[in-house]
Every structure is written in C-alpha cells, then in structure tokens.
Amino acid sequence: MAKSCKFARELLRKLDRLEDLVVRNKSGNTAFCLAAVSGKLELAKEMIKVAKKMVEDENYGNLEMAMIKENENGNLKEEETNKKLKEEIKKKQLEEVEMMKNNGEYLAQVKGNWEMSPLLFAVLYGSEEMVYWLYYLTKASLNDADRIVLLLALITNGFHEFALQLLEEHNELATAYYETEEKETALHALAQLPVANQQGVWKRIKRCFNRYHTLQLLEK
User: Fold this and answer.
1) At 154, which helix (H) or strand (E)?
2) Helix, strand or coil, per DSSP, at residue 138
3) How many CB atoms lie within 10 A of CB 15?
4) 144-156 and 160-169 are packed helices; what angle lies between their axes, rounded to 10 degrees?
5) CA–CA separation, 66 vs 168, rounded Å?
6) Alpha carbon distance 67, 195 (integer Å)
7) Alpha carbon of 21 to those of 63, 104, 173: distances in Å?
8) DSSP letter assigned to residue 192
9) Which of 27, 52, 177, 196 is the 20 to 30 Å CA partner of 15?
10) Neighbouring residues of 72: CB distance < 8 A, sequence distance ≥ 6
11) Of all residues in the chain, what percent carry a pLDDT higher than 90?
C-alpha cells in the first residue's frame, strides 16, 4: 500500500496541466471516477491536492477539449440532437469548465459515464470510506434531485445508516421521488430489498416520514 501511494504521488507529480486530471477514457470516465469505483481513497485525495495546486498556478491546459463531450463519444442521448438543446448542453459544459478553473475540488463533481457522479459510483460499488469522504466534499453542491437519487442508491446498496443520516438532514426526502417513470420513493426502494436487509431501518425511516408531515402541518 505504501509503495502504491508513493507511485501515485510520483505519477501525479509528472502531470503539469489540469486537463490531464479530467480527461476521459473510452467509456467516458475520468481517473477520479475510477478511483471512486475502486475505493482508492488516498489516490483520490492526492488527485484533489494536485488539482488545487494546478488551479492555484493556473496550469489549466486545454480544459475545454478535455471536459466538453461531443456527440461521437456516445455520452449525449439520441433525443438531444435538437440544436437548441445541444447549445444549452454546451453552455452548461462551458460553465463546468469555468468552475473547474476556479476550484480544484470540483474534480470530485466531474461526472463520468451515464452522467454519474464519483459519489454515486462509490455508492454503487460499495466503498464506505469513499462514500463518506465524497459526500462531505461535495454536499454543498447537491441539489434536491441529486439528494433523492443519492438516497435511493444508498438504500438499494445497503448504506442504511448513511441513508438515515441523509434523512435526518433532509426530512423532506422521506416522501420525495425522482422525476422518472418509476417515481420511486425511499419506501419503494426499501420494500424491494430482502427482508433481512430491512430490519432496524423501517421504523427509523417511518419516523422521518412522520416528522416531515408534522413539520408540514406546523408550517401551515
């Protein structure tokens, strides 16, 4: 492990441009996304340190080329061929480039294949330490939709204590659902798990559910 960490630091030291950290492979994933998948927490931390130093030194390289996804790489959906919609996507991607230039920690928010964040990758592949670290690193940037998707992923993948913590922080998530055809809530996600995985979780989610409705009544 020590040798691996030393090699990672030496390798990162060879990089001199921010674009080297956000370049995607053929599958559409950055190296940071893959570190999240494999649970390589020390590597991810080193990458953030290097990114922050590059931002400080303004060693950006060609970030636009590295970060902006074109049609041919398969990341844009077929229905997004509409010219106006493509322009909106391009505008958003340019905004992400500027955010990357202003904050090295934004590396932890750069999405990979299937528009998945490193945090979601970590949840899906079961790296508990990585999940907690990425959550606290990126929680200020999460919007309502992000938190709903995160909650469902946490429940489905067995991070029930973390899911309960998220519900404590955001009681409204107890009844929220993501705007898809399925419209699944936390209860739907929980109900599909094996019975053994539900023990001790149901009562606490129900408590958050009741608390949310109580707060709703008090606000009226």
Assistant:
1) helix 144-156
2) helix
3) 16
4) 150
5) 38
6) 43
7) 10, 10, 34
8) T
9) 27
10) none
11) 60
Q: Where do the structural domains in the chain lie, given as residue ranges?
A: 1-115, 142-220
The pLDDT tens digits of the residues spanning 33-75 come to: 999 999 999 999 999 999 999 999 999 999 999 998 655 444 5
H or E segment and range at residue 2? helix 2-14
Residue 77 burial class via C-beta count within 10 angstroms: exposed 0-12, middle 13-18, buried 19 and up: exposed
Q: What's the pTM value of the predicted model, to 2 decimals?
A: 0.82
Q: Name which of 36, 44, 41, 40 is nearest 12 in CA terms.
A: 44
CA distances from 102 to 56, 78, 114 (A): 8, 32, 25
Q: How many residues does this entry show for the chain? A: 220
* E strands in the chain: none
Question: How many helices (H) and strands (E) are present in the chain, helices listed first?
Answer: 12, 0
> Is residue 122 within 8 Å of residue 130, measured between CB atoms?
yes
User: Can you tell me the distance from the alpha carbon of 30 to that of 35, in angstroms, rounded to the nearest whole number?
Assistant: 9
Q: State how far the alpha carbon of 212 is from the alpha carbons of 100, 151, 166, 189, 209, in Å.
A: 36, 16, 13, 18, 5
Give Cα 186 distance to the centre of its chain: 18
